[in-house]
């Protein structure tokens, strides 16, 4: 059975539950990631000759499993597993699995480590055969864990991780995908943390490149080394040490230079110069530009990057927005960098993206190639493009894609991006603060005083909706009528605004045209998706689909192609990628499996059956629609009967009601009460109610029984239908019924959003100006008079 990403993620996160509470997330992440690492390298490399990682005899995950339940399990893991692995492969030190302060002592530690190991024993987590060639399932899982660890660690300890979305932006704007890379192409991160940013750059290259990284924190550098191995980059050179005071990568006594350099250094490092005399820096990183302030290390890291780039090198660095406008020595450095032509671009990011701080950051893009001829800087203000994700903000797929597209094409987009000349920058005294060059503020929704005084919707507000009128020119006349010069009135009742828009022939034609437009893409994509075979590469699949979808919706009115793109990427993340990994591993197989869960006593409980690729509802919908219709009808009848019983109980539940003598209304109590009042002529009405309830209850029970039998029969029929499916049937069920139908619904929802948006704005304008101020004043006076007269009748004198 292929490994589903979602299943891997949940399994790994449940392993954290074994440790959560005993220690901080910044600590327990080490134990979980080490277990992940040992399981992966054991599955992948144990017994493999010339493997990049040597698994010593007795130091595999299988040997760790043999230690479960032993009273000295923690000590044995250290000695028999961790020690040999570290020594044989020259790895960094790993966490102490016998640390009583973190893992508990005695039975508590034994149980905790035993349970932790058991989670990784899940047969589904077999990494030896669950990785589609070219697709990094483990790397993605590692990234998933790192995001959660960073979130839980909070502000002070989340610096070991650069959000994957930002890493992807940097990797894609460097231009490495377009370069002729070879194994001699080098990429370097001087503050590599856990290595996620560096690995994203490597992933973007067409060929294998050589990676270098330095990290100050010893534990984090160990994570980076493991991360490189999990991402199948075991040859990457990761070293530990302070990059500014002791840069480890050198050619002789000079700094080694690289083709690509990326970094997410600590923001505004106040101790950057500790142990270093910047005026006597042996590597001359500051001499050509100026020395950064002693309490503000941002430019120290940026200048290290500049010095570490080859003459044609390209780099990108994440820095706080302050570097764009702060004065004094930083202004001098900024001026020197600009005049040398090193700064190619600046991308302003949303606030609260990073785990170490909530302040907004930017990406400064450095390009030494042709720097002497550079006369402008491309700027993007992407600060408004994000989604809320718990306590942090997060770039969505569409935000990433828009930044990358606009930057790589140098496309000037109003309120978002522009190319700014050195001449204009010099006029602003080399201040690079983005609001000086890009007005990203949304136009204020102004109140019209004359409209409030005399009524009428300002024509200017209606003109502002021109993008709708360009598509449906007659719709404006259908909604509005002339009031007086410069002002309009509604031509329809306020309650009819939505139907007027939605049913207007021009809007109907537009909707039909967009639906047909999607159908064309759907037909083309269906043919491509049905050609997938075992061994396909899921990441290539989604890349192809996404490119095609964006191109298909390029330039379409009223619809943002990036909104459409987001629907595809959301569905990919939720469902489609797991399906594609299943197909990549097994082909178009739709086989059922039993759902076995453990009860509280550890016994297996059969919870029915499932099929991941073709879930039951799709089989039922296509092959058993009549049976499902009958079930739905029974369910509707049952719902109606249940509602009648509830209504009767509410009506007769009071002190005078027929159920007043019952402790609880159920069949036994009702039958007993009927027996008690049998022959009592004064209880005739009560008997009638009780009999009515009993009839309804019997009918309800009968319907429940019939419904359960029908559902059970349908479940059995559906389950036994799977072996009858041929490959073409499976393709139809998955591609048409599951994937493309879901995307169809999501993308067609954009049409509803368009009509709702226009409806809301028209209604808002109508309500804003429907009651002129004099009329409102008269109404207030009228109501005040009524109140006063009422008070007088009550004897109150004003």
Q: What would you note in describing this structure?
A:
The chain is α/β, with parallel strands linked by helices. Among the domains are: 1-153, N6 adenine-specific DNA methyltransferase, N-terminal domain (Ferritin); 157-438, Rossmann fold (3-Layer(aba) Sandwich); 615-724. The protein has 28 helices and 18 strands. The strands form 5 sheets. Strands 3-2-1-6-7-9-8-10-13 form a 9-stranded mixed sheet. It has a 3-stranded antiparallel sheet with strand order 14-16-15. Strands 4-5 form a two-stranded antiparallel ribbon.
Overall mean confidence score, pLDDT: 89
Straight-line N-to-C gap? 85 Å
Annotation, overall tally of beta strands:
18
- Range of helix content: 40-55%
What's the main sheet like?
A: 9 strands, mixed
What is the molecular shape?
Answer: globular
What is the beta-strand fraction?
5-15%
* CATH class category name of the domain at 157-438: Alpha Beta
Strand arrangement in the largest pleated sheet:
3-2-1-6-7-9-8-10-13
Count the DSSP helices.
28
Poorly predicted regions are: 131-135
Radius of gyration: 34 Å
Structural class, by secondary structure, is alpha/beta
Q: Would you identify the CATH architecture of the domain at 157-438?
A: 3-Layer(aba) Sandwich
What is the CATH superfamily label of the domain at 157-438? Vaccinia Virus protein VP39
EC number: 2.1.1.72
Keywords: Methyltransferase, Restriction system, S-adenosyl-L-methionine, Transferase
Enzyme class: transferase
Domain DNA methylase adenine-specific: 135-445
